[in-house]
């Protein structure tokens, strides 16, 4: 079991954070951006980057090759819809995708938008961690967090009102 401190200060003990989120036991800040039969998307607001989305499977699996055919289709389709929405309503030109199979949670893909300020950390995969830490440590101001929350709302509307 892992103890997780929520942003509201409450703590919950869960086996798997992804299970807790996709089952609705833990409510992500900003809410669910989009949900399909097999997937669940939200923003991890621990990293206040506008338009950063975590796309998690609902089933507790670790690896891409464990997805059923229906899940694979759902995965690529919903990821594409999210990507398109990031471009169309948030103006995000590039996204980095990241997922690791030895996670302590379960299968989830990070969709990390690229912004101009990020290029000082480089362009490759090793720039991602410093960028996330920079966002968490230096960008947690009220104004930026407000922008992040507005972007979550904008994406949610775009992905659910059609
Ligand atoms: Zn799980």
Automatic annotation (TrEMBL):
Keywords: Methyltransferase, Transferase. InterPro entries: HIT-like_sf. GO terms for molecular function: methyltransferase activity. One of its GO terms (biological process) is methylation. Its EC number is 2.1.1.-. The keyword NAD does not apply. It comes from the Bacteria. This is HIT family protein. It comes from Thalassobacillus hwangdonensis.
């Amino acid at each position: 079991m892992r103890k997780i401190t929520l942003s509201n200060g409450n703590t919950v003990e869960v086996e798997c954070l992804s299970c807790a989120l996709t089952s609705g036991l833990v409510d992500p800040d900003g809410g669910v951006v989009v949900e399909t039969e097999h997937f669940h998307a939200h923003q991890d607001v621990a990293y206040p980057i506008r338009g950063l989305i975590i796309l998690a499977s609902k089933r507790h699996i670790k690896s891409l090759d464990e997805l059923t055919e229906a899940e694979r289709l759902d995965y690529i389709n919903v990821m594409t819809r999210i990507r398109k929405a990031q471009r169309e309503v948030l103006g995000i030109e590039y996204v980095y995708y990241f997922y690791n199979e030895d996670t302590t949670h379960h299968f989830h893909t990070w969709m990390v938008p690229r912004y101009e300020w990020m290029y000082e950390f480089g362009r490759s995969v090793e720039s991602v961690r410093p960028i996330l830490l920079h966002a968490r440590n230096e960008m947690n101001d009220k104004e930026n967090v407000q922008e992040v929350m507005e972007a979550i709302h904008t994406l949610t509307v775009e992905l659910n009102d059609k």
